[in-house]
Design a protein that fits this description.
mainly alpha
């Protein structure tokens, strides 16, 4: 047992060392090292900077919502509503491109990234929960501020009306609890995979293409993203007479939980366990 613990400790130290000596490579081990290195660097940032970056991310992701609402308003009555919702996939990626390439801290992008240093024994669960809380609060506040900023401005610019915001909120809230949770898990899964894929390349155009493909898929199929969904649901609560604070909060809890499960468990845990299995097999030979 002691020998196994020693091997595991040496393995963790070796992987931590490699995460600080990242070189361009498509090797599975190197990609894992890149992601762990990225997560570890975020842990080293002070909480105030993390919070401010998260607030900015919440604001920036609002541009995805701005385009979604504008698109809906533009085609309302001209196209079948379901077709219009599918077109969301075309404009959904903008905010994500701004956030990811701009290096702001977004909860769903960082879920799997921050979980990996914990799985690798470099950080504690308490540290993970602390930084997740800071990021989530910052993202939500940024999104809420965006709603207040854009509500009246959009109508003045003839982009969309407040009733448009309510209709979009209706669309995302009109699901059973289990649908919201499962849909959010898939969205978190895709966002976790996006982080993994982004660490396989340094080419700017390739990275943009990956962001467009993954987040465009989320927008096209209608999976629930907690941070964009926060803006959509809060706008509905703010400008609707029948969407309650309870509806908003239940939606928020389910989507945050689902996104976390999808990113931290389906992606981070499984990817790490695959590597550990490979490592254990290699040591036997």
């Amino acid at each position: 047992m002691k020998a196994e613990n020693k091997d595991q400790k040496e393995h963790q130290q070796d992987l931590e060392k490699k995460s600080n000596e990242v070189e361009r490579s498509e090797n599975y081990t190197e990609i894992l090292s890149r992601v762990i290195h990225e997560g570890e660097e975020i842990f080293k940032i002070n909480n105030r900077a993390i919070f401010l970056s998260a607030c900015i991310a919440g604001l920036e992701i609002g541009f995805s919502y701005l385009l979604v609402a504008t698109l809906y308003f533009t085609f309302e009555g001209r196209l079948d509503e379901n077709t219009t919702f599918k077109l969301f996939g075309l404009v959904y990626p903008l905010g994500f491109i701004m956030v990811i390439l701009g290096k702001s801290v977004l909860y769903t992008e960082q879920t799997s990234v921050l979980a990996l240093p914990v799985l690798n024994g470099q950080r504690s669960i308490l540290e993970l929960l602390t930084i997740w809380s800071i990021v989530i609060i910052g993202n939500l506040l940024g999104g809420i501020l965006f709603v207040f900023c854009v509500g009246d401005l959009a109508s003045q610019l003839n982009l969309f009306e407040k009733v448009t915001m309510v209709k979009i909120a209706d669309h995302i809230l009109d699901h059973s609890y289990w649908v919201l949770l499962l849909s959010s898990i898939f969205a978190g899964w895709l966002m976790g995979l996006l982080t993994w894929l982004l660490n396989s390349t340094t080419e700017a155009l390739t990275r943009i293409l990956l962001i467009v493909l993954i987040t465009g898929t989320i927008g096209f199929v209608g999976f629930h993203h907690s941070i964009v969904g926060n803006i959509e649901a809060f706008a509905g609560y703010l400008y609707s007479e029948y969407i309650s604070i309870g509806d908003y909060l239940v939606f928020l809890v389910l989507t945050l939980l689902g996104n976390g499960i999808g990113g931290a468990i389906v992606v981070a845990l499984f990817k790490y366990r695959i590597f550990e299995s490979h490592y254990a097999s290699k040591r036997k030979h």
